[in-house]
Amino acid sequence: MMSNVTIKDIARRLNVSATTVSNALNGKPGVGKDARKKIITLAKEMGYQPNYFAKGLVSRQSYAIGLVITNIADPFYPELALGVQEKASESGYSTMLFNTNHSIENEKKVIEMIGSKGMDGVILSTVQQDDPNIGLLNDLGIPYVLVNRLILNPKIASHIDSVALDNYGGSYKAATHLCRLGHTRISVIAGDMTSSTAIMRTQGAKDAFLEFGITIPLKWFVEGGYSKDKAYLAAQAILKQKDRPTAILAQDDNMALGVREAAFETGLKIPDDLAIIGFNNINISSLTGIDLTTISQNQYDMGIASAQMLINKLQHTVRPGMSNTIIMKTDLVIRKSCGYHLNGYV
């Protein structure tokens, strides 16, 4: 139920002007630190809730942002969405979730819908390299931030705000782990090679293999599209080969689970016959019996950072024309799926 407490009620209690209360609650200058704290504290005590509808009529803002993802069933996204929603809500914005199902055409429709609904901005985790919808966003004048994505063309990237992972470094760590365990026959099941995540993860693995003097056959680099089913089918084909790999690096945990199913169906034991490493450290990867060695990233923090970046743009707290990129660190999480617990590194 909407609170009936108004800014004037708070001003009357503190014997200050309604303008002072409004400035304090909206983070505007002209209010002392102690006075601002006192106003915010009393507003909470009185149960004050801003009327964003009325506020929007004055400011011509909707106080709504969009979050666009590729696959709503992917376990990577809930924590990311939670981070976006909580940070947005904290700043008075509601969040609408949109799913593209990996389709550029669907992405276009979503962006057009966001524009037609007058939403204030959008966070996208769907953008591909040379994505035509970047131009659409610019044409429509919709403020946007990329999350878990980078545009690798420096001329375009210099105008785009992004929050991404150190995908290159994370994949380098994963490949190095397998090499240090003594594996020389390693397959890589990549994500969507039109995305920066898959491109950088593939390059990180290749550079690690090169450093260890390991040559991987091209047929063992397979695109899995971040799909568990596609990874399962790819692993089935690879593991039936006479001279099969002894380890598989899957570029996300969802695909690693598909590889795991294919290995069991082929009669292979993990990690005795096949080592598997994933990427993302989703919740299910730590379950007993799965024990997936993986690369950890904090999806929740990525969500918070991307929402804050967009809100800063919407509230004009950054200089126009300035772009910002945040690269978040990765960590190797060693469990049992690669066999390190048995013999360590060679």
Structure description:
The chain is built from 14 helices and twelve strands. With 346 residues, it is α/β, with parallel strands linked by helices. It folds into three domains: 44 residues, 434 Repressor (Amino-terminal Domain) (Orthogonal Bundle); 139 residues, Response regulator (Rossmann fold), CATH 3.40.50; 143 residues, 3-Layer(aba) Sandwich (Rossmann fold), CATH 3.40.50.2300. The strands form three sheets. It has a six-stranded parallel β-sheet, with helices on both faces. It has a four-stranded parallel β-sheet with strand order 7-6-8-9, sandwiched between helices. Strands 10-12 form a two-stranded antiparallel sheet. Strand 4, helix 8 and strand 5 form a beta-alpha-beta unit. The longest helix has 16 residues. The protein is elongated, with a radius of gyration of 24 Å.
Q: What is the CATH topology classification name of the largest domain?
A: Rossmann fold
Number of helices: 14
Coarse morphology: elongated
Q: How is the largest sheet built, in terms of strand order? A: 2-1-3-4-5-11
Average pLDDT score: 91
Q: What is the count of structural domains? A: 3
Q: What structural category characterises the helix and strand content? A: alpha/beta
Q: Topology as H/E string?
A: HHHHEHEHEHEHEHEHEHEHEEHEEH
Low-confidence stretches: none
Corresponding CATH superfamily of the largest domain:
Response regulator
